Amino acid sequence: MKQLYLDIMELSLGAYTPERIREYIAEVRRDGLTEHGFPRLGANIGILMAHGRRLALKAEFIEIIDLCLYGFAHPQNKSKGGNNFAVREVCCAIMELEKTDVIDREQLEAWKEKLKALDISTTYTHIVSEDVKHPNNWAYFGVLSEQARGLLCGIPTDAFLEHQLPSQLLRLDKNGMYRDGSVTGPHQPMVYDMATRNLIGLSLFMGYDGMYAEKIEKMMDDSDDLTLKMQSVTGELAFGGRSNQCIHNEVMSANYYELRATLLSRKGEQEKAGLFKAAAKKAAETCMHWLQEKPVSHVKNHFDPDLQLGCEGYSYFNKYMITVASNAYLAYFVADDSIKPTVAPADMGGFVAETGEDFHKVFVNAGGYFAEIDCNADTSYDACGLGRVHKENCDPRVCLSVPFPSGKTNYKLETPNRHPLSICCYKNISDRIICSAESGVKHVLISKNECDSQCTVTLDCVLNEERLFTEKYTVSNAGVDIVFSGADGILLPAFLFDGVKETEILATNGQILVRYNGSFCKYTFSGEPEEYGLFFNRNGRYRAYKISANKLHIEIGDSNEL
To answer: pLDDT exceeding 70 applies to what percent of the chain?
Structure first.
């Protein structure tokens, strides 16, 4: 696995042409260090050089680190160049290079002296104070940077960690998941939960055993079962909120799974460690798959990445492509390859899992299929209802990986959507329709039935305390069957275009068939599908259909099996 993580790092770095790297250096020379993508680029070049890779970039690496160290000490803006994130990256690169003779010892020592001279109060943002009591996860990125600086330079760091950590522990829900939005309340982003639990757990791996160590252990223990069950049968992190559908999400998950495997193994919990090791392998292989798709992008579509379709303003190529390598290094750093993977729970199936109300998700896994339902979506990112249906060993986009936000979205799309959309039902009311994907339509789980081969969940769709619909989902090796009660029909998005390649859609009476990338998705229903218009999400462009029916069967498979 360690070699796989180095391979992922190299592929991530390989997406930056020499010209792009030189342009990036010129940009920072002109504008100063304004964000953390640039230090990540340099650090990961250095780490790969320490492992005998990308040695031709030695001159660029030295120039980047010199610029970063100047920027750390002379911050340009309120974000202080992303120092909370970036100091750790540079420290880790130097630690790896100290094991080699790739960079002169005198140069390494000079860099270490500059790092040692940094002042916490001027280097980092999001430091707990009377005015800032509950900072978000930037507070813990700074902690991990300090721990890395402490390991490299021999500086004590526990006092800063223990100053910051209580504010972060207050953000944990009953399942040990991290709320990066408001301290409490709905619409918490899934990516930032995983990212921050990673950081907090890494503190233990990096040697912290102080007054909060037991609470960190409890956080991880509380979240273990749900964390494993959130993984899709295709190895993907759950959808929801900011930074979703970026390919660094899967290797970030692999990092957490590797961390848990190693820490559990150290405690003698080998069986549980094997589950996490298997989940790490599944997530890492998924990330490798995305990196090998052409044209390569930092987000799961094939539009020109500089257009930023499917991305928030901050999640541009230069910053987020190298984040894949950054997360892969952390997975490499914590991985213990003496631990043998068993079977990831995502591959076992036979369960229904729920998050707390702040994350409002239901996951259903049976028969090689995986369904993910958002019960109370933030429609500026997502939509309520069935937002994901995956089948093992099939392309995750052929059905649906992430739903469709409202017209007022927090990320960039080709064209604004008419309204939020998932695989959902609708009702005709006067001169408009209301669908179960809309903002404010809460999906309430009222029953579930689990067995190895089939799982069923039933949810009420409630608006202003009035039940609009009832949805019954049955997931088995035959596919996903849905019955919508109280509905006049179904709204069904079919994948059309990934930014380069169009899918093949065949819509006939009673069936819609989609072929894409060696996989098919077949929707079966009664009645004639009526085109409802185009909708857009992070993966691309979809053609939606309106169907006067209340039952839907979804089957996904290998196109060669048709």
So the answer is: 99
